[in-house]
Amino acid sequence: MIRVVAGSRLHFGLLHVPTVGEPVGLRHFGGLGMMLREPAIALTVEIADAWSATGPSADRALTVSRRVVEQLPLEQRRPLKIAVETCPPEHVGLGVGTQLALAVADAAYRLLGGASPSPDELARLAGRGERSRIGVEGYARGGFLLDGGQNPDRPGSSAILHRGSFPESWRVLLLRPRSAERWHGDRERLAFARPRDPIANLHTTERLCRLAILGILPALHDADLPNFGESLHEFNRSAGEAFAGDQGGPYCGAAVAELIRWLRAEGVAGAGQSSWGPTVFAMMASREAAENLLQQAETAGWEFESKTITPG
Q1: How confident is the model over 108-134, as pLDDT tens digits?
Q2: CA torsion 60→133→177→83, rounded to 10°?
Q3: How many CB atoms neighbour CB 79 within 10 A?
């Protein structure tokens, strides 16, 4: 039996959404994100006489395990029993689909193949990392990550330009407001397929690169929370504007947009939406500051489906 524990992933936005008519040579997607210790995915995988999976997201775990085993040499293929102990909900902006798939693929490959797969092998086995590789690289090594994007001539390639640490004393408050919309599947695919103005698209990419290279990463290096938060909020909002025609704004819906406005009004510089939402993040100086803010939110009448205070 092999047991794996994996954290969650925040994605702050893509650097470049490819479209028709743009200059040749631009790398596709990329982005900025980080790994969190919580909410965590924990699961066990063991060899069995018949296929089975139990626990939250068991069907996805079973599908991934079968996919992995089918890619192994015939003599190594065996049925597996997967027990998912803990797993956050899917499609809430925490990269659960990717992290669960990678955890299952990692355990199955080590159990049957006898070796630890590389990040590229994991991505192939699990069928993940089609656009951003932050989830794949983050699963393997953790950290705060800048992905320089894919070479359009080599889909699935990645260029992790930076992997840094998150200050130990800082905390991330995760909030998921009730009644928030969820984006995934066909809605997501259609949003990527929509044509964009190539000039405006390029200007957005240039702005995001400036914010990442000259704002977010230097402030993180200096543990400068105010400037880190302001740059991160602006990066996240600007990245969301690329999908404003699909979402009706930079965020996935009114509940998320209003919560971010409230957080900013309360003095939280680093507030935004992770991936397609509806999870909202707030970058805080300490656990005490995060707990105080959460109490203020609940006193103000906010209701949440989920709330977590976690280190990076």
Answers
A1: 999 998 888 988 899 999 999 878 889
A2: 30
A3: 13
| 134 and 219, same domain (yes or no) | no
Query: Which pTM value belongs to this model?
Result: 0.94
Q: What DSSP designation does 238 have?
A: H
Q: Are residues 148 and 191 in the same domain?
A: no
Report the alpha-carbon distance of residue 204 to residue 212 in Å, rounded.
12
| 177 and 81 belong to one structural domain | no
CATH number of the domain where residue 74 is located: 3.30.230.10
> Do 143 and 178 fall into the same domain?
no
72-76, 86-90, 174-178, 242-246: least confidently modelled range: 242-246
**Boundaries of domain holding 186:** 171-310
Question: What's the helix, strand, coil split of the chain in %, to 5?
Answer: 40, 25, 35
Question: 302 and 194, same structural domain?
Answer: yes
| DSSP-assigned states of every residue in 1-48 | -EEEEEEEEEEEE-SB---TTPPTTPPBB-EEEEEEEEEEEEEEEEE-
DSSP states of 99-128: HHHHHHHHHHHHHHHSSPPPHHHHHHHHT-
Pair of tokens at residue 125: 């086995």
Q: Which of 164, 185, 209 is the last residue of a domain?
A: 164
Q: Contact, 5 vs 130, CB < 8 A? A: no
Q: Are 235 and 12 a contacting pair, CB within 8 Å?
A: yes
Token pair recorded at residue 271? 């507030």
- Taking residue 196's Cβ as centre, other Cβ atoms within 10 Å add up to 19
Q: Which pLDDT band, with edges at 50, 70 and 90, does 26 fall under? A: confident
In what helix (H) or strand (E) does residue 173 lie, and over which residues does it extend? strand 171-177
Q: 3-state DSSP call for residue 51? A: coil
